[in-house]
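Q: Could you write out the predicted structure for this multi-component system? I'm mainly interested in how the pieces pack against one another.
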Amino acid sequence: MTGEEIIEKVKAGLPDAIQDTALPQGDAVIFVAPDCLQKVAAFLKDDPSLNFDYLSDVTGVDYLLEEREPRFEAVYLLYSIDHSHSIRIRVGIEEENPSVPTVSELWKGALYPEQELFDMFGFHIEGHPKMERLIMPKDWVGHPLRKDYPLTTEAVTFSYNRDFKSELVKSKPPTR
Amino acid sequence: MSVTEQGLLERDKDTMTLNMGPQHPSTHGVFRVILEMDGEIVKTAEPEIGYLHTGIEKNCENKRYIHVIPMTDRLDYLNPPGNNLAFCLTTEKLLGVEIPERAQSLRVIMCELARIASHLVWLGTHALDIGAMTVFLYCWREREMVLDLNEEVSGVRMMTSYIRVGGVAKDATRPWLDGIRDFIDYFPAKVDEYELLLTNNPIWIDRTQGIGVLSREEAIDWSLSGPALRASGVNWDIRKSHPYSGYEKYSFDVPVYQGGDIYDRYRVRIEEMRQSREIVKQAIEKLPAGDYKTPDNKVSLPPRETLDTSMEALIHHFKLVSEGISVPKGEAYVPIEGPRGEVGFYIVSDGTNIPYRVKLRAPSFMAIPGIWELTYLASQEYSCPT
């Protein structure tokens, strides 16, 4: 199915749960609220003509610098192996208490990337069996891929430069 | 072990917990596995990752598009052209530029040569790990030829950065094309040689067949991709399902095996090397004439000789070098079929010359939880043959 047909089909199947749709460069994109995510995901997987049985990736975006409401977004990339088509689900997540339900009951491959979302963005994944840091050390403070997390350099322990400032260099917003 | 009331150590279960890694010669990339062993049989294996995390995604958010390309090389040093291509395709999708056919063919040649080299490294090291030294040396010999070809066209053996936004870095040279022709004549006999050494070798079969079996449903459920998915009987190849860079023009087969064990993953990769060689052969034979990068000077540098005569070219050159490419606002994801599976970049652009968010879909990262839950390292009762 083409992107337009997929969007038509999803809209017809779940008229209440879909907030918005888009077709950037022909890709089907749907916007869903966090509390509808599991319902939409189950529909996408179980409907025989859509049959999105393969989860490619889950990722997050922090729209802090764009001052968008809500601030965070989780993005789910899905394929159908039999029909060779794809869809993107974008889920807006509030800044206070960022939380999103897990989809790992439908696709087990979501376990790792969802754990990474917690690690890198601090999203609470409801229903995830292992809500702990995946990549960063267990005692790490902060969530590195948030836009308000500064890009730092490591403090230099020994230096021949007398005036070397060992304090961390806070990153400015990148010069455009 | 647990401590009894008398203060004695008591053995409470029949398994032993063993730490493997993070620095272990057989993990090939630093990660730690916590093994639960029953004698020589691995009962469960829990991977712990993060030792190789370099924060490239965060780094990309502070670099211009053109500066991201050398970093994509270092994501996976066995497949730099594929990573370059995935990033460039996504950027080009946002930019909406057309890539000349010659550039597309050169990209395909580089990516397929990288796939051959990557599978050779896999085969060599895997064979070495389970006791076949000769294959390792043979594979390195052929991989060296591919690295020499990389050096000829890009100046670098491994981190080529050859594929750029808008095309490729340099046009193909005659020694490179001749070298590839020699290589594709030479290579098939060598693949047969590896197969002669391994495919019907009883020790090889004993150590690979029926080990680490993943069914079709499990492989899809765990988001495996690439050869691991195809060895479990799933006919899924991004080059066929979502063709990019003109892959629809080449005729090649996607090898699919049903066993889902290490032996079938080996056979898939052997067959893929043959198919990659077929694709390179077709691409070389039909290599179109024309530009090796897009003539759009907002994306790629104008030819050096025009800088002396054309004011416009000089302005474009200055703007591109000092500011870089400005990508329109939007978000895009383009997957490619890398040697290890699906590689893709999800890029969010805010309309400036620096990507707002770059997310890499890494095939090996997605494949690791399969070990954790299914413990497919040793899902079959297996002990070392004497």
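A: Regarding packing and overall arrangement: The first helix of chain A runs from residue 3 to 13.
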